Description:
single chain; 4-stranded parallel sheet; 18% strand
Amino acid sequence: xxxxxxxxxxxxxxxxxxxxxxxxxxxxxxxxxxxxxxxxxxxxxxxxxxxxxxxxxxxxxxxxxxxxxxxxxxxxxxxxxxxxxxxxxxxxxxxxxxxxxxxxxxxxxxxxxxxxxxxxxxxxxxxxxxxxxxxxxxxxxxxxxxxxxxxxxxxxxxxxxxxxxxxxxxxxxxxxxxxxxxxxxxxxxxxxxxxxxxxxxxxxxxxxxxxxxxxxxxxxxxxxxxxxxxxxxxxxxxxxxxxxxxxxxxxxxxxxxxxxxxxxxxxxxxxxxxxxxxxxxxxxxxxxxxxxxxxxxxxxxxxxxxxxxxxxxxxxxxxxxxxxxxxxxxxxxxxxxxxxxxxxxx
Length: 346
């Protein structure tokens, strides 16, 4: 065999060895040049808390990028229509989504979303609006990230009771009862029902005598709450001593109604919300709201981001502290004028 032919054979063997080595390094366990596509679908584009949480989720996912993994996040909303949200989810899956984060329009109607995700083996992280337990048990790649609505109602009642105890002037007519208005999110919504029932019950358990003037649904919305409160002010004037609101947006709407009413601020009711929106925290600092319950969007967004990446990579979920291997429950925190600086600008 000539030297030239021998050298060609050796070169060919070395090339085969190199190719084999490269294939081995780039096998199925490698995430080099991998891209995770996360689809986020909210119930509406008009909910400031959900928008803030979505922004935090995008930021958290961005921090998890590295030289081996790129993250692409697509955000759309269902425009408060479950059928439209179903279609958007199907479109995202068709476009190559790897993990879904879904804030349901109707927590009782996730069947179509679950069906199409299961057919395509796409995990779903539901958030903020919890599906009923039976739906979440349909498949082992369904998860929920959120809070316990009962806890928020309990805490709201506790901080309101504490405030009334320390500020007896809340009872302006000195009749021994607190005349109150309750602003509810929406009829039949699980969180609205729990927050309403638990806040009132906790106030009573803490020794506050209550007299209900009105319950009003305002669909979690600041503008609607302002309109409802404006009507109540025209009916009751400055007789309202306490406003309990299922969320901060509606509490801020109530404060705006009083601001526009011409009623002096010393005759405004005590106003309490839930969520810990920046505007509400500022209102507490300024004294136009008296308290809220912090719904930890940073903690929940961080959990969703970590869970999405681990699901994509096929990692163990043992570090996620999931209840029943499906639920991540973030704790609420009380906020009043003494603690509000700890929550501003998080």
